[in-house]
Amino acid sequence: MPETNGRQSNRAPWAAFFLALAAMLSNVAFFVAFPGQRFVPWIGVGLVVASLLWVALGIKRAFLQPQLFGGKKSSSILGVLALAICAFTMFAFIHARELPASAGAPQVGQKAPDFTLADTSGNSVSLAQLLGQAGSPAPRAVLLIFYRGDW
Question: Could you say which DSSP state residue 137 is in?
Fold first, then answer.
């Protein structure tokens, strides 16, 4: 809607910024297990493309039609932020495939091999110690969490 001074609000850079955020957050959904999750990264790519189109529209409006759409500075700032988020999202999308495979990790339900690690106090603790001895009345459970990373 036109404002009182005849100018319209340039909402395209805001749309680009929020689409870029949605693209970045869609990659977080990749780590949540639900049916059809293999398509989630491609949703992020689609959102990046949509964000880039809105950035172009917002910058075009701000610089080619300044008498109708104001906000050259805000459009530029939001455009640069959206571009940075899109670049980060695409970098993560491309380089996520380079993570090493975790073929040696135990599968769900498989018994973990015995190991010994240092606890927060620096004392050595083994998995066998945590589970208790074989003759104990109630074996204790141990939750193992594996963080996939590349160090």
Answer: S
